[in-house]
Amino acid sequence: MVTKIFIDGQAGTTGLRIHERLEPRQDLTLITLPEETRKDTNARQAAIQESDITFLCLPDAAAREAVALAGDADVRIIDASTAHRTNPDWAYGFPELSPEHREKIRTSKRVAVPGCYASGFASLVYPMVQSGILPKDYPVQCFAMSGYSGGGKAMIAEIESPDRAPELYSPRFYGLANNHKHLPEMQKISGLEKKPMFTPIVDDYYNGMVVCVPVMADIAGKTFSIREVHDMFQKHYAGSNFVHVMPLGTMEEMTKTKLTCNDLRDTNQMEVFVFGDDSQMLLCSRLDNLGKGASGAAVQCMNIMLGLDETTGLQ
User: Fold this and answer.
1) Going along 70-220, which residue ranges are E strands?
2) Which of 57, 183, 194, 233 could form a disulfide with 15 if both were Cys (CB 3.0 to 4.6 A apart)?
3) Which positions are catalytic?
């Protein structure tokens, strides 16, 4: 049986990447709308209700509207917007977080794809909290760097313009009021009692990101070794197809390490690193903001929902 797929918002950055991943597959058929009707409400509703699975690659308000357009149709929805990520009725699309997350994705009709920064953050903080190493009230700080594709079409056009402003060649801090749109899910999904302090940076390269969380043992009020933390991550992600805990280096190796942000571009892979010592640790997660942080995660969730090998189309 061939599964019918509709991508609502196919012209956007995430929608285009999902389409690229799905188009070669023989087990799927893509429902597409001509350019003149792709924003027409009636045409979109018909396509959503005809599909078996609809991907939403839309602004939040439009995503909520699309869910309403589904009505009582027997369609499963995978939403790549921020609209439903903290809604308990929706599955959170990060299956590696726990067997419960994976099972809810498998059985749900509504799945919210995590944000790119939130994916890296949750990959680090969720296991730390669940294992009891990090208290829920720990004052978490996070800083991260992403390629400019995360800013969508407007930022891509701005950065790639031949006459762009000189300051666009430099890394830029933003979200300086600590109000980034990923913060609600970063806090809720990771099980934190306090909103994290989050400092994102966008730089002059297309895709890829690193998310970093420093942890200080004296603030945590606990004694734990860097080896214990690394072993915990290895156990948590054991057997994962896409999340890999990287070897714990010696202090000399860590000192020489340069952690680049775009090594995993165009993949659905994620790498978790533990740096530092027993008193001060730096946890880092590297991924592609357009892969495991967006389109790759969406396709992975679709595979799980359809009972397929989750790596299908993502190798």
Assistant:
1) 76-79, 91-92, 110-112, 141-147, 172-173, 197-203, 209-216
2) 57
3) 116
